[in-house]
Amino acid sequence: MGIEAGDLTHIATGAAFLGTGGGGDPYVGRLLAMNAVEQFGMPSIVDADALPDDAQVFTIAMLGVPTVLGEKAACGDEVDLAVKRLEQRLGRRADALVGIEIGGINSLLPVMAAARLGLPLVDADGMGRAFPELQMTTFNVGGLSCTPLAMTDDHLTSVIVDAGDAKSAEDLVRATSVQLGCSVALSSYPMSGRDLKRTAVKGTLTLARGIGQAIAEGRHAGDPVQALVNYLRATPYYSQCRVLFDGKVIDIRRETKLGFSIGHCKLAALDGSVSAMEISFQNEHLIARQDGRVKAVVPDLICLVDRETAEPIPVERVKYGQRLKVIATSAAPIMRTPEALAMFGPQAFGLDEPFVPLEDIDG
Amino acid sequence: MGIEAGDLTHIATGAAFLGTGGGGDPYVGRLLAMNAVEQFGMPSIVDADALPDDAQVFTIAMLGVPTVLGEKAACGDEVDLAVKRLEQRLGRRADALVGIEIGGINSLLPVMAAARLGLPLVDADGMGRAFPELQMTTFNVGGLSCTPLAMTDDHLTSVIVDAGDAKSAEDLVRATSVQLGCSVALSSYPMSGRDLKRTAVKGTLTLARGIGQAIAEGRHAGDPVQALVNYLRATPYYSQCRVLFDGKVIDIRRETKLGFSIGHCKLAALDGSVSAMEISFQNEHLIARQDGRVKAVVPDLICLVDRETAEPIPVERVKYGQRLKVIATSAAPIMRTPEALAMFGPQAFGLDEPFVPLEDIDG
């Protein structure tokens, strides 16, 4: 069933879950998208496999410090300009847009952009979750260049970058984004329809909506966490799914360092045992350890949800005493290849632990 | 008389003088230019007034920390790419290049670029001296936009910037240059021949050559400082000219801060009096005070030369015990208008003193 304007709230909830603690507040993305849809109408959401091979597709996203993104949002003109500048650089119009990540604010920002620009939006993204850095995409793993890219700010300053590799581009974009006020619109990874079909994580807007719907329906039925888990188990990517822990927050340490939110969160078990779970994050949750033993590790998804309402809780809203359930799911198969793990497996985040698929870890 | 390859050494010496302490080591610029001229031939140097009104002219320069520029120099490909990227952005080829400043390395870098690209080089620049920041040009004072601009590094990373004003562009370019290793090629201020004729400081390559020649001839004749002063007095811009002080360095403080070399240098008189002169700088010399009284102030030129050879001494080569003469000259009239002073007068550098033309200060 096609995605419609009425689905934006569910997508926002699903994107908060898939943001695995990071990705910025999808509430802001929802407001931006709703406002644009009211003004310009809902863009058509198209299947990746329906794209012509020679279509020209750009990603569109906001990049910066999540708290600033949440406060400044986007005025829209800078989003249009990012796409326009990239078109100008390539001497070719965009035929469609696609999200770079489905987690957080960047799940719905592309809806805003597509509505404003009258372009179709592809039901796909480059990770099936959120990640903190520009090179951490299946597009990059698949050999696509993230440049030329265009970044713009709310003063309509624009910067076009051509770099040798995605990590150099990330370093440059990060430093420039700080100079531009820690919140920029970014259009990158210009790609053909053929390349998108080969490298994207497909159907993720639909999956985000499904997650949001499952939680909403679960609330009516009385067990939203169970409803969420049931839904995830029926999906193609997140089917390996476990409630890792049921606890309350006894320790939270967050540090803003080098443009990232880095730290850990510790939960004590609610069942009366002495067991504890510790989750480390760099914007997104990276690893969950129970009493020192790894229970889930990136790129598999580790999500915190309110134990009663299943509301996904991002890192910046974790508070002492909160009662949460920790849910882990498998990442999409395309995210677990050796090439993909080299780009965004545990080692890419400085962790010593090897990647072990969730389903191979003792429950 | 046309400028030829044999003039590059004189231009380098003149550019060191006009660099007023900053602008990077023109020796490096000379090597780069000579090498390019050997390979590609000497570019034609054209008078500003001979340019067609509709010619498309770009500035070309290196930007960054002078010490890094001196060590890394430029490989050439990044200089070509900066011009090419700006051409691509504008959808129009460059008809000629012009220097942004005549002081330091950027006096001869344009010779290298013009030789490599087979373009004519205009005998002019945007200040008739050197200044530390991108907005401090007569082009900007004359209302020309410094963007779109293209910056490139030795890995052939390229960044194209469009900004609302030159100061925003400077802030962005400065931060980006740090990320790119503190040394980048920069092609900016795309302008028409008409605008160049209206806003440039004209004939400054010829003047730099004249300064170098006067010093060389003065060495043969036995009094290079006097020969230099005589030459300057006969020029259209630097005709107000004084030897402010004859002394030895008794104090030098340099700090590298925010990408600039900031500090002061103090000289004691050699005539046996207790008089002392203190010169403050931000890359370039800004103000000279004798016993607390202002003797010359930016944008007028304050230059240190060896008291015997008249060799211009840049800030980074000032040493304790050195015997130097301090020479001040007027800036070009176009540099002394109220609009120009707002852009690069004393207040633009945080000084409290008003601008007083050299000739109106008691000797």
Task: Write up what this structure looks like.
By secondary structure, chain A is of the alpha+beta class. Chain A has helices spanning 8-18, 26-40, 66-72, 77-90, 109-117, 138-141, 166-179, 193-199, 204-221, 224-233, 338-344; strands at 45-46, 56-64, 96-99, 121-122, 124-125, 149-152, 158-162, 183-192, 201-202, 241-257, 260-269, 276-282, 284-290, 293-297, 301-306, 323-329. In chain A, 32% of the residues lie in helices and 27% in strands. In chain A, the strands form three sheets. A seven-stranded mixed β-sheet of chain A has the order 1-4-3-2-8-6-7. A seven-stranded antiparallel β-sheet of chain A has the order 14-13-12-11-10-16-15. In chain A, strands 5-9 form a two-stranded antiparallel sheet. The two termini of chain A are 35 Å apart. In chain A, helix 1 runs antiparallel to helix 2, helix 1 crosses helix 9 (204-221) and helix 2 (26-40) packs parallel to helix 5 (109-117). The first copy, chain A, has eleven helices and 16 strands. At the A-B interface, helix 4, strand 7 and helix 7 of A face helix 4, strand 7 and helix 7 of B.
